[in-house]
């Protein structure tokens, strides 16, 4: 205070000029300006403003329940039992649901899902995850001590990237990400102040990954940073490709040769639609390549409750498995996750159900399989339809959607539109998507939000 | 690969020498070595190892349900209804619980708690939080646009600290925290690479906060960093003091004069036990000080579902309210939280119930109040007993526990014990707590994990 007691007129403590500079660099397209405009239009519609459409269709994010997909009955039954255990006496609930709930509650402090769990996640859930991975990968062992439950897959991915970010200037950690990519990666790299290293997927070959392109990208990056991490999304987001076993082997060989830490984002592992395509986990391929690789290559792989047939994004459930992580680093990881105490317990419980779903002979098995199959068939049907319809539109060409939940069609924009966009200082595909939103109410995220080769334009649907 | 095809023998990509150096500096006592040893002892007991006790009592963390506190029935009923809406037809559930569930579900995409919510949190929940704050603070307005739902309070605190961390060397952000403090603060400051600035609470005056000590601490910090943030925990953790209205006013005046961003951790706002003590929110005091302050001082305050009478830690629900935040910074905050998509929807729903609990006339009101009062009375009773019993033990002296859920008694250690500890390279109170754990099974966190004046020793119970 000045002598006369009045406060001096200083500005804010926290301004865009004095805030964390890395945070300013963060860009997150799937919830960016186009989505903000969509929310605004929704409000305008509610207030009675006339538009050429009656509702906004938000195709900006893979949010199955919001688009009308129904939750899996068994999952919600068990979650209700865990939440309100008085229901365990209710004959309306099947025995297998009750058994799952009892088992989860016994693993919780005070038998309550409201207690903190251990930071790494509920013991029995981590065991179930390990068993699931082992079954999925044809018997290759999985150790519950290598499983960390997470707050959605995003949380796990950011945590591993955080551990890996070190150095300054030319020794700063470089993180190799595919272009196009899911913008969580570029956003986290920016926030951590790491260096984004782009490698381009081959649109001409159905968005496949070429080792020669990895090599080019790595070589170029080594001029200015220390590339240490290779991130792969398989099945691909936003591009919907499914990697062949051969490609995964080549990637692992490349990572081993070049001493890169591998991060495999496998949240769409049940979403494979195209004939002749199958999901191969990086873990499985790594171990099938023999001890020279399986004892050496450091790998973290990620899964969540948000996609596949369950689509339970709101619960923020997920796990990661770390392979060949240095034991001292693992201790640091365990310490780091303990600062946030624990992932949400309901999300952990839901993750348990995904990896420990009803088995043949259990009362809920048939309903569960019926619901699961119905969702996956509908998604496969939509994937095919999307590709077919898009390819009938002049100026749009779309690769087959082999998996995941999106297509990433290429659009040819007339010179005039490109110039108009540039005059507005907008990316041409942002201009296109904005126009589409204003005229039809359909909200798509432009390709520029995911990254694309210079001079090409796309959107994600 | 080398010419003959064998892989070169390089070391790990990620080692403690090449990992994020800030993460290495993170220390988190409430889940640190003593807790790891407690978990180990629990395993040994299960395996039949003989000990002088039969079970480990984990008093390392405020985890009410794990210690036997029962969840509030109404909260769990609504959560079950939100999770499994088929129960809305069940006559066992009261109408007010059904109404709350219907209202929350109507605010969710596809009426499912499994959909992503908006990044800032479900609209109707943010409105209810704002109404709650307004009621609590005697009508001082609260704007839902200033409310951000969070993954527990920790998440909100880390997010605001992240925004505030900038500069290098002598301009690096300094963050003022109380000593003793809740170690989330020191851990986050280390992880962000900010500068920890300690101010000491006055143990002789029941852990009160002296402005002269704030001034001393600030002055000293300005020699080597840029202190911009003042963090306050009220009611105090681990020290259990409740700040007087006068003290809060003084702190606000100090923050205004010295241009500090205020962070008020108010997660124990319902946990006030001592005669003559009352909870005063920083927001309320700020606005009662008139426009000179209320239009200027930047404040973020935090609350959660984890403490008070509900103790629902596992759901990771919470909110923060930001006051006088620069609009451009707020846009950056909204962008930043969008990268994690959304806080867990069940935690958001639970937060709603905390701020929108049963009202007189509603069917659940009486049971709710009975349960709430029983929990708070039991906690008050325990607070008094703890203080009384501890003060009968020679060598232990304990301040009155005015609020929150902990006491932080001072222990006088014999010279011999101090020397023995030092020979083992252990903090003397860590040595004491470890011995207590091995001999009695009681797991306490030593004062050194929270910080204390040089030469004094404590534990948190």
Automatic annotation (TrEMBL), chains A, B:
GO BP annotations listed: L-alanine catabolic process
Matches recorded under InterPro entries: ALAT1/2-like (IPR045088), Aminotransferase_I/II_large (IPR004839), PyrdxlP-dep_Trfase (IPR015424), PyrdxlP-dep_Trfase_major (IPR015421), PyrdxlP-dep_Trfase_small (IPR015422)
Any one GO CC term of the record: cytoplasm
Coiled-coil segments: none
One of the Pfam families matching this protein, by short name: Aminotran_1_2
Highest taxon listed in the record's lineage: Eukaryota
Pathway recorded for this protein: Amino-acid degradation; L-alanine degradation via transaminase pathway; pyruvate from L-alanine: step 1/1
E.C. designation(s): 2.6.1.2
SUPFAM superfamilies reported in the protein's UniProt record: PLP-dependent transferases
Function statement: Catalyzes the reversible transamination between alanine and 2-oxoglutarate to form pyruvate and glutamate.
Protein family per UniProt: Belongs to the class-I pyridoxal-phosphate-dependent aminotransferase family. Alanine aminotransferase subfamily.
Subunit structure: Homodimer.
Name under which the protein is recorded: alanine transaminase
Native source species: Labeo rohita (Indian major carp)
């Amino acid at each position: 205070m000045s002598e006369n007691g009045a406060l001096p007129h200083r500005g804010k403590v926290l301004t865009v000029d004095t805030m964390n500079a890395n945070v300013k660099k963060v860009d997150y397209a799937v919830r960016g300006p186009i989505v903000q405009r969509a929310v605004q239009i929704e409000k305008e519609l509610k207030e009675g403003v006339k538009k050429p459409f009656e509702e906004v269709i938000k195709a900006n994010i893979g949010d199955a329940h919001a688009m009308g997909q129904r939750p899996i009955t068994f999952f919600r039954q068990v979650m209700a039992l865990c939440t309100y255990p008085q229901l365990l006496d209710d004959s309306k609930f099947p025995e297998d649901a009750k058994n799952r709930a009892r088992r989860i509650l016994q693993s919780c402090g005070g038998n309550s899902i409201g207690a903190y769990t251990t930071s790494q996640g509920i013991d029995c859930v981590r065991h179930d995850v390990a068993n699931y991975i082992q079954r999925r990968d044809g018997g290759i062992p999985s150790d519950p001590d290598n499983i960390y439950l997470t707050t959605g897959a995003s949380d796990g991915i950011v945590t591993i990237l955080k551990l890996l970010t070190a150095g300054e200037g030319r020794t700063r950690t470089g993180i190799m990400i595919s272009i196009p990519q899911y913008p969580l990666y570029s956003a986290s790299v920016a926030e951590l102040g790491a260096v984004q290293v782009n490698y381009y997927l081959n649109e001409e070959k159905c968005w496949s990954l070429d080792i020669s392109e990895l090599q080019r990208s790595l070589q170029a990056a080594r001029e200015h940073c220390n590339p240490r991490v290779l991130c792969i999304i398989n099945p691909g987001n936003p591009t919907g490709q499914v990697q062949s076993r051969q490609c995964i082997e080549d990637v692992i060989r490349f990572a081993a040769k070049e001493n890169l830490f591998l991060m495999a984002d496998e949240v769409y592992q049940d979403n494979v639609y195209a004939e002749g395509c199958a999901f191969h986990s990086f873990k499985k391929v790594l171990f099938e390549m023999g001890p020279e690789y399986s004892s050496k290559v450091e790998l973290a792989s990620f899964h969540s409750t948000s996609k596949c047939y369950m689509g339970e994004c709101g619960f923020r459930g997920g796990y990661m498995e770390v392979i060949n992580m240095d034991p001292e680093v693992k201790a640091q990881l365990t310490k780091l996750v303990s600062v946030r105490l624990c992932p949400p317990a309901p999300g952990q419980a839901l993750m348990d159900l995904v990896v420990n779903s009803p088995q043949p002979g259990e009362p809920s098995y048939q309903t569960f399989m019926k619901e699961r199959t119905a969702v996956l068939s509908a998604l496969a049907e939509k994937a095919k339809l999307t590709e077919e319809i898009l390819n009938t539109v002049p100026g749009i060409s779309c690769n087959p959607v082999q998996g995941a939940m999106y297509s990433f069609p290429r659009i040819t924009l007339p010179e005039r539109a490109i110039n108009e966009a540039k005059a507005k200082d907008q990316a041409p595909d942002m201009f296109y998507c904005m126009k589409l939103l204003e005229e039809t109410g359909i909200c798509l995220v432009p390709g520029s939000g995911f990254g694309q080769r210079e001079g090409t334009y796309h959107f994600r649907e």
